[in-house]
Design brief:
six-stranded antiparallel beta sheet
Length: 186
């Protein structure tokens, strides 16, 4: 009888929570291929993402993606915040590579991602958006290869002196992210 009570008691305490996260953003970015030239490409970006992350109470374990585009949404542990709203919250910065963009001429020469951050509490299932983090679209362009239209990336990007460059010159808007959660026991 004591064995049953112990196992029931252990199952009554969750090991953490699975957080269901949703965000939707649209943006407009300017891409300058050569800093010595004012020629710019304009890129319209958009994303709507539903994903679930398992966040354990044990801080030695990392959050893991369990549902959604897990291969294309990465946990950026190097950019975790050291001081969350309270000690029970876990900083979960994510990079969403499911972003779509019209690309203008740069499609195939640039990739765009969205950085979004959350504070998730694996003890209570509560979560808040990290408004102070670097949330927004950014891109990475490379001069090797060809665009989706068969043109040289080097030529399209106006012969930049570097092999690759990033851009963050994006204006964006978004709907409020939503966070729901359910406990998990094993």
């Amino acid at each position: 009888v004591n064995e049953t009570a112990t196992s029931l008691n252990e199952r009554a305490t969750p090991l953490g929570y699975v957080f269901n996260l949703h965000w939707a953003n649209v943006g407009f970015c300017s891409v300058v291929g050569n800093k010595y030239n004012i020629f710019k490409h304009e890129v319209r970006t958009w994303v709507s993402t539903d994903v679930s992350w398992k966040v354990p109470i044990d801080k030695n374990e990392e959050p893991t993606c369990v549902r959604g585009a897990c291969r294309d949404i990465t946990y950026d542990k190097d950019n975790r915040k050291e001081h969350p709203p309270s000690p029970d919250y876990y900083s979960v910065p994510l990079w969403d590579f499911t972003v779509e963009f019209d690309g203008s001429k740069v499609a195939g020469c640039c990739d765009v991602a969205l950085n979004v951050g959350f504070y998730l509490n694996p003890h209570t299932g509560q979560g808040v958006i990290d408004h102070e983090g670097l949330q927004g679209f950014s891109g990475l362009c490379h001069i090797t290869g060809k665009s989706k239209f068969g043109q040289s990336c080097y030529e399209i990007l106006n012969r930049p002196p570097q092999a690759w460059f990033s851009f963050e010159d994006c204006v964006q808007t978004s709907t409020p992210a939503t966070i729901t959660s359910v406990p998990y026991y094993s």
